[in-house]
Amino acid sequence: MPNTAQGSTQKRSKFSQILAGVLVNSIYEMKNYPVVLINTVLAPFSFLFLIVLVSRGSLIGPAVQGAFIMTVFQSGMSIQTDLAHLKNDFKLQDMVVSSPTSWVTYMFGIALAEIVYSLPALIVLSVLAYFFLTLSLAGILQFVAVLGLMFLVSIAIGYTLSTFSSDIVQSFAFSRLISTLFSTIPPVYYPITYIPLPFRYLAYFSPTTYVAEIAQNAAGFLQVPSWNIILDWIVLVVLAVTLFLVAKTKARWREI
Question: Do 68 and 129 meet the contact criterion of CB atoms below 8 Å apart?
Answer without folding.
Answer: yes
